[in-house]
Amino acid sequence: MLTLDKVYRAHHLLKSVARYTDMIESNNLSDDCDFRLKAENLQLTGSFKLRGAFFKIASLPQDDREIIACSAGNHSQGVSLAAGKLNRKAVIFMPSIAPISKVEATRKLGAEVHLVDGVYDDAYLAANEYCKKNGGIFVHPFDDEDVIAGQGTIALEILEQFPDVDTVLVPVGGGGLCSGVAFTLKQLKPDVKVFGVQAKGASGMCKAFTEKQSVTLDKVSTFADGIAVKTPGVLTRELCCKYVDGMLTVSDDEIASAILTLMEKQKLVAEGAGAVGVAAVLAKKLELAGKKVCAVVSGGNIDVNILSRVINRGLLSSGRVAELKIAMLDKPGQLREVSAIIADCGANVIQVRHDPGGEHADIIGCFLHIKMETRNREQLMQIRQAISKAGYQILN
Length: 396
Fold this sequence. Notes:
Layout: H1 4-14, E1 23-25, E2 34-39, H2 49-58, E3 67-70, H3 74-85, E4 90-95, H4 100-108, E5 112-116, H5 120-134, E6 137-138, H6 145-161, E7 167-171, H7 176-188, E8 193-199, H8 204-211, H9 234-243, E9 246-250, H10 252-266, H11 276-282, E10 292-297, H12 304-317, E11 321-329, H13 334-344, E12 348-356, E13 365-373, H14 377-389, E14 393-394
Parallel strand pairs: 2-10, 3-4, 3-6, 4-5, 7-8, 7-10, 8-9
Antiparallel strand pairs: 1-2, 11-13, 11-14, 12-13
């Protein structure tokens, strides 16, 4: 049974293992609320998962059985580090879509890693099959009371660091973090509002929360691999339905913009799963004017190759980089005039491509593709209006 006493016992046990992570003021991210970040991306192993994994393994009988786990990356690192500190062998099953950086980090922490084709749920089935054949103790990444209690220790820190907080946003995949944080907060400060945030392409808990029953999605589609879960937990669903005030979703574009904003304005690197709470605030998914808001940045383990794509996607989705296709007559001076319009609006041209007109275009016509850096969507709209006013036809 999950109790507040168990959360406090986890908190005491974790003092010598886990970092007491920073609560960072970030009012430059929102102009209408007191907004702060609980920086679990700065935790050992780069995510909150160490908390639940260590408390669970430390609570097990001390014998020589293997510790078995499945994970997209963060739980695997938490289990590996915890098992190493407690002199246990860890065998981890990870989906083949897991970022290479997370796979290698898990191996370096001493675990035996097995890659499984598919997503998290496929790795889960493989891990359970291994347990049946070889024995061992399975440490579930979210649907376990000890794991949930460990994650709930974050709520104790939030209340110590931000005692007058009234709204907390928590990333949700399987639901272990959200249920642990919500349970603990509601025990100690019942009036605080807790909202779970999911990627739109992996919104199983949102559906389960609405329908009040177990849900399995046909597929998940999001680059936020840490919360790409088809089937949320049974226990976590019950806890979320009881203690969470609402569930929100954000798109991959909104997540990418949040990652970019955190890097630029806070100098923090967050993975997709870690940035969903910030994405919800930036996209104004809730009315937060005058509120004291905390978003849990749950992890920062993002592969550098994915990060470069995310930065580019964030620039595009926020209007910071844009490409225009302009139809015009193929004569001298056209490029100079269009470039001058863009420069007068304060933007920067970074790429130009000239294409002759196609079979349905004017014989003396052409297409000009211009890629440029802009401040935001408002400036981009200003540029489009100025180019159109000058008599040019914008085709995209």
